[in-house]
Structure formats: C-alpha cells, structure tokens
C-alpha cells in the first residue's frame, strides 16, 4: 500500500505515511475523549517514523459552524476571538502536555484552508455536482447534522413538540432553508464498490459493516450550505450562504497537505489514514470519499473508527458534564503513563471505560512494579557488580537464547499488530515481554550467582545481566512510540545513546536483532521512571 517516494537524505526510498486526527470543535477545552484519538495517532506516527517511513501527522481545530458560533455568543465574544483564545490557551498547549509530535496543526479559519475550500466547491458547482433546493428537517446543532425523524428520541417530559438527538439527548431544531445540495445520492454504487474492492478501507470490521449497511439503503443528497447565520466560509457563487461546516472541515485533510496549492507535496502525502471516533464515521467513510470522487481525487487510504471512551458508563462529550481535561490525569500519572493506559487497556476499535482506580492499578502493576522496577534493578546490579560497565555476554545459555528469540517474536508481533492498528496488541506484546524478562531474572537469581566470586560464576553473572540489559534495549525501542519520555530515559540509562545513537533513529523492525548493545556501555540508574503515587492520588 501507499506510494514510494525518494527523499534526498535517504539511501532507500521510504514509504509515505500520512495520518490525521479529526479536527476538533473549539467549543470548550479538550477532553480525554479528544486526547484519546490524538495520542493514538501519535503512537502510530512515531512507530512509522521508526520504520523509516516518510511520515506526516496532522491534527487541528474545526472552527466554523453554528455550534462554535453559539459557544462564542454565550461568552459574549466574536467567534474569531473565541477560537483564537481557545486554540492558543487550550488546544495547542494540550499537545505538549501529551507529548504529541504532530507535524502540522490546521485551523479551518486559516486562509490556506478557506481559499482552497472555496476553489474545491466552486469546481464541483461548475461541474454540476451541486444544485439549489429547499431543505426541511430536524437539525442537531451539537452534531451539526440533519437528522432523520425516525432516529429521534421522545421528550422524557412527554412534550410532543420536542424531539431529542439520540447522541446528545438534547432537543433538535426544525430547519427549513433554501440550500445548495451535493448530489451524494449518485455515489452510492461507487462507494459500495470501494468498500468491496478495498475491504480495509473502513476498519474495524464492525465499522465497515455499519457503513456498508447504511449506504446499501441508498443515500440522500446532502445540503451543503447554510443561510441563517454567517460564521463559515462564504459560498463563492452565492454570498448569501456559507458552506456547511462538515464539508468545510473534511477538506482540512487535503488543504493541509497542499491540495490546490502545492500539487507535488499533495501527491507525495496523499492518500491519508484517518483516525476518527465512531460518532463521525459516516462523514469520513461516506461523504468524504464521495466528495473526493466528485473532484477526481483519490479516496483516503483508510478510515479507522475507534470506540467511545466512557466514564461511569456514559459517553463523554464536551456537552456533558463528564468531560475530563487530560491535564487532570497527566498531573498525577505523567504523560507517558497516560498514553500507555488508554492505548493498552482499551482494544482499539472498541468502547472502553476510564476510572481512576483502574488507572492506578495498571500504573502500579505494569509500569511502576513491572517495567520501572525491572529497569532500576538491572541498572543497580550492573552498578554494584560491574561498576556500571555493561559486562561481556560470554557464552549464552539456553535461557538467554530463549530470551533473544522471545524479543525477536515480540518485535514481529508488535509490528504486525501496528499494521492492523491493534495498538493494544502492540503494547500487550511488549508488556508480556517485560514480564518475561522479570521472570528470567527471578529464575536466574543473579543476586545469588553474585555471592560466588569464582571465574565461572562471574562469567555467568555477566551473561545474565548482559541479557537483561539487552532485552531492555529492545523494550526501549518498542516503547518509544507510546512512551517517548520513559523510553528515552531507559535508553540513556543503558548507555545506548552513546553507543548506538539517538533512540528516534533506531529502526523498530530491527529491534529484535540480539546483541546490539556493546559490552563496555556505561550503565547508570535511571531516575524513577514511574514514581510512587501520592497516597491520595
Ligand atoms: O466531531 N470517546 O469534533 P469533536 C472517544 N469537528 N473519542 C472521543 C470522545 C469519547 N468520549 N469524545 C470525543 C467533531 N472524541 C468534528 C470533526 S473532522 C473533519 C471534524 C474524539 O470536537 C473522537 O475522535 O466533536 C471523536 O470523533 C472526536 O473527538 C469528535 O470531536
């Protein structure tokens, strides 16, 4: 999959890998729901960089539409002032809080976006994909979407004139507007062909089935303009309308990659992998590819819909009180443990729950007592038995050969899971290996071997501690995508930075080759990778 592109500083052409998150509505501060998609995309991007792929990772903010306008009005400021403030004070800073390595950040109010969006829709209008009509129907502002009467919920207080959005459980509005429509209905067959010919276009399987079932019922044309408010991109052929926020927002993935402005760059990066929550699956797997087909542009490489993060059994969203800011959790556990927790314990693609108790339990067992303790024990033993100089591996026994084979298997399994975006399996494979290394030490009892000063015992002690350190070298490479800070600290403590170069430059697929850390490396105790939690945490 993907195209090859040669870049001048690489000896071999790398595969291009372009990944995106949704662009989030700037109605409020980020929640752990938004952060979930962003850290997942970050882990994937970092992994691809460590495969040597020409990687581009985009995130950003969705700033137009009625919903953002209403949030600004509630605070008594203009929508532009509102979005500027929120982006500067919240949406950009949260990326550093979470250690996110995005290559670009797009705001839909930027001219590099708005100009290209107008060009795109003018072309579709000129080519007959857009026509004028009237729309009447229920509209949910929180979704920014017209709803079908059949999917609405009844009013819990029994008011017959009120119907609720099934996602937000808040009243919908009845809209009647003269609008422009995109001939979406004409793309149903081509979309169904796409889903059939490229079974991984929509993933996971449950998401694919939902989309196929939806399109099989037939598609209605899509109203793509609004005339009752003006916070949006002006329709180029009729300035009494603004473009519907979704068809403006979806184009961010193309405009940020140079569509319409830098064709060479766009050709190199496109098509993208889109990570989305399942709430916005249809926009990405139905409307977006149809828009691209209408414009004669390749459809995305993949749309992957992950599940809903729940707190106390309810989907969290900014419009509900359960929204938790990522900093609340990062302040207690640190960003690496945060990233690890959400990506490790929730099967990527399924719903999952967050609770402080569960997070504390995973932190303590897998990170503090698992990896953290292992790293500090190995460094401490090399410190006290070998003055901090990595001993010679000597003659490897069966146990060491087994450990080496397990590392190679772990790397292969973790990398294969990454291709399916089974991030939880990638991390699960590494966690099992960490547990294996701990088991290896328990079996080999180096602290007992150290009591005997004879030559063979010294050699044996060296073999054991070399094997444990070399195993940790592999773990550092494997964990650098999910836990960049921890992996870098581990890498430093093994003396690997000095001997093997920067962690970011290590090829993840070669991490299983045993014996890379040379004897003589200076091993130092890492500062506490996962500090003990305060009593009241
Ligand atoms: O929909 N669980 O923006 P948005 C999991 N602007 N993921 C969650 C989540 C939860 N509880 N809450 C939010 C929009 N998310 C549009 C997108 S893209 C062209 C335009 C994540 O601010 C998840 O990725 O409502 C979801 O799809 C997204 O945030 C919705 O963010």
Structural write-up:
The protein is an alpha/beta fold and 537 residues long. The protein has a domain at 355-510: Isoleucyl-tRNA Synthetase, Domain 1, CATH 1.10.730.10. It has 20 helices and 18 strands. It has helices spanning 32-49, 66-74, 79-91, 93-97, 111-126, 188-197, 205-216, 245-249, 252-255, 263-269, 281-295, 326-333, 335-345, 356-386, 398-419, 423-444, 446-449, 455-479, 484-493, 496-500; strands spanning 4-5, 14-25, 54-62, 104-107, 130-140, 145-146, 153-154, 163-164, 173-182, 202-203, 222-223, 225-226, 242-243, 273-277, 302-306, 309-311, 314-315, 352-353. Strands 1, 2, 3, 4, 10, 14 and 15 form a 7-stranded mixed sheet that branches. Strands 6-5-9-11 form a 4-stranded antiparallel sheet, covered by helices on one side. Helix 18 (455-479) packs antiparallel against helix 19 (484-493). It is elongated. Mean pLDDT is 94; it is low at 1-12. Bound molecules: ligand ME8. Ligand ME8 binds at residues 22-25, 31, 33-34, 36-37, 62, 249-250, 252, 276-277, 279-280, 308-309, 315-317.
Short description:
The protein has helices spanning 32-49, 66-74, 79-91, 93-97, 111-126, 188-197, 205-216, 245-249, 252-255, 263-269, 281-295, 326-333, 335-345, 356-386, 398-419, 423-444, 446-449, 455-479, 484-493, 496-500, and strands spanning 4-5, 14-25, 54-62, 104-107, 130-140, 145-146, 153-154, 163-164, 173-182, 202-203, 222-223, 225-226, 242-243, 273-277, 302-306, 309-311, 314-315, 352-353. By secondary structure, it is α/β, with parallel strands linked by helices. Strand 14, helix 11 and strand 15 (302-306) form a beta-alpha-beta unit.
């Amino acid at each position: 999959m993907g195209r090859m592109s040669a870049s001048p500083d690489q000896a071999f052409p790398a595969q291009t890998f372009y990944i995106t998150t949704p662009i989030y509505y700037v109605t409020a501060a980020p929640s752990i729901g938004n952060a979930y998609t962003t850290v997942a995309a970050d882990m994937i991007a970092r992994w691809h960089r460590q495969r040597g792929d020409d990687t581009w990772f985009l995130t950003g903010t969705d700033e137009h539409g009625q919903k953002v306008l209403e949030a600004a009005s509630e605070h008594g400021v203009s929508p532009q002032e509102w979005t500027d403030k929120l982006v500067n004070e919240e949406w950009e800073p949260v990326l550093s809080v979470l250690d996110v390595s995005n290559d670009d950040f797009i705001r839909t109010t930027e001219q590099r976006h708005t100009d290209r969006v107008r060009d795109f829709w003018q072309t579709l209008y000129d080519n007959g994909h857009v026509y004028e009509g009237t729309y009447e129907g229920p509209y949910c502002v929180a979704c920014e979407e017209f709803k079908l009467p059949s999917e609405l919920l009844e009013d819990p207080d029994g008011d017959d004139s009120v119907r609720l959005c099934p996602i937000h459980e808040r009243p919908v509005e009845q809209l009647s507007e003269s609008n422009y429509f995109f001939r979406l209905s004409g793309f149903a067959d081509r979309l169904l062909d796409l889903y059939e010919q490229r079974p991984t276009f929509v993933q996971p399987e449950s998401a694919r089935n939902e989309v196929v079932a939806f399109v099989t019922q037939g598609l209605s044309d899509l109203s793509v303009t609004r005339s009752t408010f003006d916070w949006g991109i002006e329709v180029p052929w009729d300035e009494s309308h603004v473009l519907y926020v979704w068809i403006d927002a979806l184009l961010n993935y193309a405009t940020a990659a140079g569509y319409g402005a830098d064709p060479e760059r766009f050709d190199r990066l496109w098509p993208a992998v889109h990570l989305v929550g399942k709430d916005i699956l249809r926009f990405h797997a139905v409307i977006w590819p149809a828009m691209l087909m209408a414009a004669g542009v390749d459809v995305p490489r993949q749309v992957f819909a992950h599940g809903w993060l729940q707190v106390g059994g309810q989907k969290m969203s900014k419009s509900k009180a359960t929204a938790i800011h990522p900093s609340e959790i990062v302040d207690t556990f640190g960003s690496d443990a945060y990233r690890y927790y959400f990506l490790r314990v929730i099967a990527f693609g399924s719903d999952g729950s967050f609770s402080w108790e569960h997070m504390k339990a995973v932190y303590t067992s897998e990170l503090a007592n698992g990896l953290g303790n292992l790293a500090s024990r190995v460094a401490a033993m090399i410190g006290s038995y070998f003055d901090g100089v990595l001993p010679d591996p000597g003659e490897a026994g069966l146990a060491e050969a087994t450990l080496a084979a397990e590392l190679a298997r772990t790397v292969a399994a973790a990398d294969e899971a990454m291709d399916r975006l089974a991030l939880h399996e990638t991390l699960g494979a590494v966690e099992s290996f960490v547990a294996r290394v701990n088991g290896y030490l328990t079996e080999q009892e180096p602290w007992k071997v150290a009591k005997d000063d004879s030559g063979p015992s010294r050699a044996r002690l060296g073999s054991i501690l070399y094997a444990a350190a070399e195993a940790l070298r592999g773990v550092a490479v494997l964990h650098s995508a999910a836990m960049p800070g921890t992996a870098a600290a581990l890498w430093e403590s093994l003396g690997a930075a000095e001997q093997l170069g920067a962690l970011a430059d290590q090829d993840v697929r070669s991490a299983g080759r045993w014996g890379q850390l040379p004897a003589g490396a200076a091993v130092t105790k890492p500062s506490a990778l996962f500090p003990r939690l305060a009593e009241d945490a």
